[in-house]
Amino acid sequence: MIDIRRRTTYFFLLVSLGHVLLISAQVQSKSGMPLIEHVAFAAFAGVQRGAAAVTGGLGSLWNRYVALHGVVSENVALRAEITRLEGRLQEEQALASQARSLEAMLRLQTSVPQHTLAARVIAGDPAPDSLTITIDRGSLDGIRADLGVIATGGIVGRVMGEPLPHAARVQLLIGRGAAAGALLERANAFGVVAGGGGDPPLHMQYVPNSYDVKVGDRVLTSGQDGVFPPGFAIGEVVKVERGSTMHKLIAIRPAANFSRLEMVLVLLDAPHGAGTGGGQ
Question: Which domains does the chain have, with CATH numbers?
């Protein structure tokens, strides 16, 4: 009996729901759209709005990713361009430095009355006991042993040993065992400037204590060593003391910049003869 009543109730509810739906299909909303269609449209519209929001967010995220990837690629390209430009700038600076060296060497060459030959420094030996450089001129260019070598600042040294056809070694004046005849310009005192490899790297010897020598005095070649003609700059006095013997202790700062030797001039017709030139 109870099952029949339940079934009757369920059937009644189902018929009532169908009747309501049928009536709703005929009733219109304020917009003129059937009520049931209006409800369904509103429900689907909400779903579409949510889907659109999700899709828009994903699209925006993708666009940002693409834009960020483009910025990263652009930064990589910019860094590569900066590196290339920095390399180009260094090349331009090197060329400018070479041009300045050549210009300075040309001015020096035209100011020196002796015949000279320009040479490029291609190697160096920084050992204190054998401070030497190698130049790209040799015997086939007219280079021979004991010719003097100068730079824009002052004297550099002398050609040592027999040169190769297109290369020669130059003993630097600041090395141990190197020497040049010297003259204190103001005091008119003669002596010998010798290399010592210290700081300062040059010292003048054999100047009697009776001579008036002051810091800042210029030291020139005397022409008595058979290597350098007189009058070339050697350096200037930076320290002077009265020696315990009969000679002063004189420290000399070189006129030539030995740390940046790029181009030099070889004196092809320097004076020859017996003198005090140092050697190895």
Answer: 179-261 (2.40.10.350)
